[in-house]
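Appendix B. Raw example, untouched.
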Amino acid sequence: MKRFFLLIVLFSGILFSACTNPLAKKAKSGLQVQISNDVPASVYLDDNYVEKPPFVNRELSPGEYKLTIKPDDPNLIPYETDISLKPGLLTVVTWKLAERPEYSGGVIYEMEAISSKHGSEVSFVTIPDNAIITVAGKEKMFSPVIIPDVTPGHLEFEVSLPSYGVQKHTINAIPGYRMIITVKLAKENLNEQTTTN
């Protein structure tokens, strides 16, 4: 059984599940990168080529990195962000590449230990701010927000904002950890919708 969090891209969203134990090798960190629209691309850490997504690397040194996802198609724009890889934990990035920044978006999942050994927390940060966060199909709040005392286990959430694409996901809240979810919402591309309809 893999002691790693697994990201599975589904038509309805993303399933992010985990074993109860983080990575066995505490000195190592993990990174998983997935392109949600299956565009061929390359992944770089601090400008060094890593691999083609989708991939999982379990043997990275903890620390701060510049992550770059560079599409093979020169008409699409690269994505670049700073990530923090923590010992014994996995950072998951799923991204949609597009021709313009406003049409690209995705989710970054990170974790950090909290003082509670039994409860969980979930933190939402969105770009832009004040996105509507719906948890378990009923609780609605605005980002940024931290939800304390989350019962460990599967938790469904939705992130929405008028004129932006909706993101629907399921995470597995782990006891003793805060799940940090950073969502960059993509503007709805009317031209793309017209083409596909």
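End of appendix B.
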